[in-house]
Amino acid sequence: MLRRLMQSTGVLFVMSLLVFFGVYAIGNPVDILVNPNADQQDIARAIAELGLDQPLYLQYWHFLTSALSGDLGRSFSTGIPALELIFQRMPATLELAAASMAIAIVLGIPLGLYAGLRPDSKIAKGIMAGSILGFSLPTFWVGLMLIMVFSVWLGWLPPTGRGDTVELLGVQVSFLTLDGWSHLLLPATNLALFNLALLIRLTRAGTREVMVQDYIRFARAKGLSDSRIIGVHVLKNIMIPIVTIVGLEFGSVIAFAVVTESIFAWPGMGKLLIDSINQLDRPVIVAYVLLIVLMFVLINLVVDVLYSLLDPRIRLADAGGAR
Amino acid sequence: MSAAVQSPLRRFLAEFAASRVALGAAVLLAAILFAALFAPLLSPQDPYDLAQLDIMDSKLEPGAKGAAGNTFVLGSDEQGRDLWSAILYGLRISLGVGVLATLVAMAFGTLVGLGSAWIGGRFDSLMMRIVDLQLSFPAILVALVLLAVLGQGVDKVVLALVIVQWAYYARTVRGSALVERNREYIEAARCLALSPARIVLRHLLPNCLPPLIVIATVQVAHAIALEATLSFLGLGMPITSPSLGLLIANGYTQLLSGKYWISFFPGVALVLTIVAINLVGDQLRDVLNPRLSR
Amino acid sequence: MSAANASGRPPLLQVEGLVTVFPTRNGLLRAVDGVDFTLERGEILGLVGESGSGKSVTGFSILGLVDPPGRITGGRVLLDGVDLATLDERARRAIRGKRIAMIFQDPMMTLNPVLRIDTQMIEAVTAHESVGTAQARDRARAALVQVGIAAPDERLLAYPHQLSGGMRQRVAIAIALVNRPDLIIADEPTTALDVTIQGQILYEMQALVRESGTALVWITHDLSVVAGLADRVCVMYAGRIVEAGPVDTVLDAPRHPYTRGLIDSVPAMNPRGRPLAQIPGNTPSPIDLPPGCAFRARCGRAIERCVEMPALASPGDEGQGRRSARCWHPVPLPQATR
């Protein structure tokens, strides 16, 4: 565990270096970090403020210490601190990501189980063909098609925006209002497709692998019902890789939300990133990148912990100090 | 046995054609490549020669006739551009960028992977750390950030795609090279005192190729999809190189007003390309890797 | 058809003309091809054969646990005179683990790695009886004690990987015993274990079934195991029983040349100093077997008539023995051994 923590810190450190060199060292930092509309005086002040006349390692130190104290600069376009701007948008993205994960899990595991239990049935083949499409179709195009069909042609769901939100524990959420749901459904489905396909495949592969194991036959020989065998003996075994992947994919979902949010004009941090890139609002970009790296590292840690909780074999190895 | 008489290539082709879906995908892919290659000959107009465009033809439905009496099979866009022609030209750009990026990434990744496996030690662990680190982040994110730093341009898109992809090759090649390295034929080549470069390139590399080909095929599809996504977001190809993603982005605003075709048909072309490549890649994997085939 | 024994009750288990096939790419594999035997209450039957002879598939077929695409295409399995094929899946499930239990070959694979021992034992009880968890747990604990596991409470909380192979097989045996079945089918349960553990488990198994009056079908490739354990023995070859009878009769004076060959290739049964005999040739592929006796290609006693399939019958020169062999040209009886 301690080793993992140190590794994670290492990753964060390396990424901060990369971001620092990417933003500060390549090209002219003044261009990148100072508002392009600033006049000569502002630029001179900024150079002094940023300490750009100091040696590189001192600049990095300055960047690192202010980053650690939560100061990642202010947005050029709004003047609001970059981190604050992102934190404002974060609930929307997290809600979208959680909804899409829920869709993927609720549909993916049963479909994958079915396909794994009856691999030769027509339905199973249909499910697998669908999952291949889910893998290979570009997310953004599927999003467009969803809008085209459900918003433009059928007129069932609104194409863009977040709809009515309600405050829950100090955070605006949309899943508590009908209007919020209607806005959430399309983007969440869009974002879910890849993971839905992934979960179907994982569950199917896991099921097929587990079903031929002796312990399943032994469970049958004990006279257990099918529901007990599938619900406990099979599911508990395939849950280990599934939880791992679901956990790890949560980071990817947040990253992919960039695309979905742009299509559906969902006011999350992904859309903020694209807007900031287009407006050359670099402090926001830097803040976003550092934050998402931190998120990935944290997710990896959590998944590791979950994994060891789920798999008794790992737990023992840890307790025995073997790892 | 007749199987023994067949040349490896013929057996390969026979096995590949055993799946009808894969065969269909291969034919489709060939057609797409042909269309992209001979786009100027197949399109009714040069979509980027402004002299050939008539603003009166703007946003025509598929099958409508234009002011000059010509038919717009797939309709036209805002500037009166024939979509069929635009798609053919767009395919060229999308495929070109995808293939170029994949080739460069493959070359670089293979070099790193071979070097890593051959040299081993510190170099190996450093390289694999980098690979692991990079692969733990989604490609789209890495590419977005790179383009945010690098700025726009065809060369920058290709560079971003290369950086996103190389790690896959490096890891795969290293894996199979480590297996092959301990085989007897490498031992034999060493005993002959061949130069390391010769052993690696002439003996090791060819035996690592099958998995590489499979990955490269699928990666072309990924690269094309990623480029289209980036272009759609306005961070990929510049307006002067209208790839399929850019065409789709242009039609996006029209989509909401019911003029679906401006986005829809370039999207279909993109999807057909990607699915065809993926299906061919899947079958290649099954044929080249008997261990995986059922 | 169900033959009644002396007490008027049908035998515990009757297997009649059982055929189990597996479709393969190269044709239909008749893994079990017309197997008949009966088993009385409390009786121990040794089912002996090489790997691929169909002995394990016979065991799985009795329980109705043949993996698809394999399926039973002929014959009947009667438990207490009731044809199991006439029962619905629910009723068959009620028999599995309750009246007929099974123990598998590899104890490393038979216990679910992610479930604790108590979970796996308690569910075996509650699948068949509506008893509370606490009561089921007591039964599980008692079963563990029965199979000689020390510190049963601790073991109940363990995961399979925390136990040794022998311990796991004991747990599997305890699971089989926990519902006091009428019949246990044991599919080579000692093969994967160390020799010392093998002996222990064998001995304990025998004591347990004798004590509880449970019938036992012990599937093995090892004749020496059967010699000390079973009442009767069936020798299988290429999906068929080639010789069956009381264990002493068959082992002392085998009539089928295959049984003879098997006995001669057991090191312990061979006089010291003589090279071990072996059966020439290989087990034939059970796909598209030629008609007639399947053993004839390897048989030193094969005669012209062997191209016809002999019936499993009492050899003519033996009178009304309880032994039968599937051979036209049986090994002669040893002269004046008694």
CATH top level assignment of the domain at 86-277 in chain A: Mainly Alpha
What is the topology, as strand order, of the major beta sheet of chain B?
1-2
Shape of chain B: elongated
Classify the helix fraction of chain B into a percent range.
over 70%
Number of helices of chain B: 12
Low-confidence stretches of chain A: 316-323
Describe the biggest sheet of chain A?
2 strands, antiparallel
Largest interface: A-B, 39 and 34 residues
Biggest sheet character of chain B: 2 strands, antiparallel
Taken as a percent bin, the fraction of beta residues of chain B is under 5%
The beta-strand count of chain B equals 2
Radius of gyration of chain A: 24 Å
End-to-end CA span of chain A: 9 Å
What does this structure look like?
The complex is a heterotrimer of chains A (323), B (294) and C (338). Chain A has 323 residues and is mainly alpha-helical. Chain A has helices spanning 2-25, 29-33, 40-50, 56-68, 82-117, 122-136, 139-153, 178-211, 214-221, 226-264, 269-278, 282-310, 312-319; strands spanning 166-168, 171-173. Chain A has a domain at 86-277: MetI-like fold (Orthogonal Bundle), CATH 1.10.3720.10. Chain A has 13 helices and 2 strands, in the order αααααααββαααααα. Chain A has a two-stranded antiparallel ribbon with strand order 1-2. In chain A, strand 1 (166-168) and strand 2 (171-173) form a beta hairpin. The longest helix of chain A has 39 residues, at 226-264. With 294 residues, chain B is mostly helical. In chain B, 72% of the residues lie in helices and 1% in strands. Chain B has helices at 2-5, 8-17, 20-37, 39-42, 83-119, 121-135, 139-150, 154-181, 184-191, 196-232, 244-255, 261-288, and strands at residues 64-65, 71-72. Chain B has a two-stranded antiparallel ribbon with strand order 1-2. The two termini of chain B are 23 Å apart. Chain C has one domain (13-293, 312-329): Rossmann fold (3-Layer(aba) Sandwich), CATH 3.40.50.300. In chain C, 30% of the residues lie in helices and 21% in strands. In chain C, the strands form 2 sheets. A 7-stranded mixed β-sheet of chain C has the order 6-7-8-3-9-10-11, with helices on both faces. Chain C is globular and about 65 Å long. The mean pLDDT of chain C is 82. The A-B interface holds A 11, 14, 22-23, 26, 132-133, 135-141, 144-145, 147-148, 151-152, 159, 251-252, 255-256, 258-259, 262-263, 273-274, 277-278, 285, 289, 292-293, 296, 300 and B 133, 136-138, 140-141, 144-145, 147-149, 221, 225, 228-229, 232-235, 248, 252, 255-256, 258, 260, 263-264, 267, 270-271, 274-275, 278-279.
